[in-house]
Amino acid sequence: MATLLKLFPTCTWTGRLAHLSRKGWAQSRSGRLLPCFPASQRCASTTSYLTVEMDDNTGVAVVTMKSPPVNSLSLDFLTEFSISIEKLEMDRKCRGVILTSGLPKVFSAGLDIMEMYGKGPEHCAEFWRAVQEMWLKLYGSNMITIAAVNGSSPAGGCLMAMACDYRIMADNPKYSIGLNETLLGIVAPFWFKDTMMNTIGFRATELALQLGLLHNAPNALRVGLVDELVPEKEVLSAASTAISKWLAIPDHARQITKSMMRKPTIDRLLSHRDQDINNFVSFITKDSIQKSLQVYMERLKQRKT
Ligand SMILES: CCCCC/C=C\C/C=C\CCC/C=C/C(=O)SCCNC(=O)CCNC(=O)[C@H](O)C(C)(C)COP(=O)(O)OP(=O)(O)OC[C@H]1O[C@@H](n2cnc3c(N)ncnc32)[C@H](O)[C@@H]1OP(=O)(O)O
């Protein structure tokens, strides 16, 4: 019991912990010992920015992002996110993840601009490694990943959604999704571009990236950036329905196929990872780029007044 609490310090189990015995342990794919519960039990764990609710009956975990006001991807958020995905990956009961937002109107506002503004090279490098790690974990996941996009999802938020296997978006024309980096005076890195090209094709990506297009929900469906639009209240239930179709496919066949499709893109970043960090740091710390970020943040804040 003590070991269990060490492994999952913030975990609230709805099952009866006292009944765990040595035979209640199972070995994960990586050989780690993990607790194994009877089929009817659910587990919810909450960290600073995420809630992870695992349903042992279905093997599906719902990961809900909750970092007010807009789920921007700070260094701390990204670190927590990658650890949570890694934990689920190692839990052999977990076959699928639904990623959603617990905030109104926003799935994720993308990278936290304040992590890139006025920061020194060391911080920028650490931040960028965390961004890479989030993408590597999600894009390379063996699990089925469904994005339940229940709000706007610009830039890094769009990357997160594109890294999933399937995207369901709330049918609200006020919500938008896309890689809008050029509007901030910055450039989407090659692996953001590759992820989008793998999702919507070369020409649509070329247009979207140069113009920094943020597609509203109907346009996002039209270009294939999302796979389904559903009424806002039904985003999560539609994601559950969609994932059951994916769960019916034998895991090994689906996983090998997924890897075949995604490995070349992942390997490209892995083999240039340090160079990509250096590029980011020298680009983002330029005075002209810092000025662009400042102007963009000021405009964001002015929209309110
Ligand atoms: C050869 C050279 C190649 C070099 C290439 C190498 C490297 C590449 C270099 C750089 C790559 C960087 C890639 C960057 C990716 C990103 O993700 S950048 C982030 C882009 N995000 C956005 O543009 C979204 C901006 N936000 C919004 O549009 C809206 O906030 C919204 C998400 C639609 C939500 O709108 P609303 O509900 O109305 O909320 P508010 O606008 O009022 O926002 C509330 C507060 O949150 C602050 N905020 C919003 N977004 C961010 C953010 N991304 N980061 C930090 N803070 C954010 C906003 O300012 C408000 O703050 P206050 O309440 O006013 O304090």
From TrEMBL:
Pathway(s) this gene product operates in, as recorded in its UniProt entry: Lipid metabolism; fatty acid beta-oxidation
Catalysed reaction equations from the record: (2E)-tetradecenoyl-CoA = (3Z)-tetradecenoyl-CoA; a (3E)-enoyl-CoA = a 4-saturated (2E)-enoyl-CoA; (3Z)-octenoyl-CoA = (2E)-octenoyl-CoA; (3Z)-dodecenoyl-CoA = (2E)-dodecenoyl-CoA
Keywords: Acetylation, Fatty acid metabolism, Isomerase, Lipid metabolism, Mitochondrion, Transit peptide
Isomerase recorded as keyword: yes
Record-linked Pfam families: ECH_1
Enzyme Commission number: 5.3.3.8
Cell compartment(s), UniProt: Mitochondrion matrix
InterPro entries assigned: ClpP/crotonase-like_dom_sf, Enoyl-CoA_hyd/isom_CS, Enoyl-CoA_hydra/iso
Alphabetical list of PROSITE patterns matching this protein: ENOYL_COA_HYDRATASE
Class of the enzyme per the UniProt entry, highest EC level: isomerase
CDD domains: crotonase-like
Top-level division of the source organism's lineage: Eukaryota
Single annotated GO MF: delta(3)-delta(2)-enoyl-CoA isomerase activity
Gene Ontology process terms (BP): fatty acid beta-oxidation
GO terms for cellular component: mitochondrial matrix
Described purpose of this protein according to its UniProt entry: Key enzyme of fatty acid beta-oxidation. Able to isomerize both 3-cis (3Z) and 3-trans (3E) double bonds into the 2-trans (2E) form in a range of enoyl-CoA species, with a preference for (3Z)-enoyl-CoAs over (3E)-enoyl-CoAs. The catalytic efficiency of this enzyme is not affected by the fatty acyl chain length.
Subunit structure: Homotrimer.
Record family assignment: Belongs to the enoyl-CoA hydratase/isomerase family.
Protein's UniProt name: Enoyl-CoA delta isomerase 1, mitochondrial
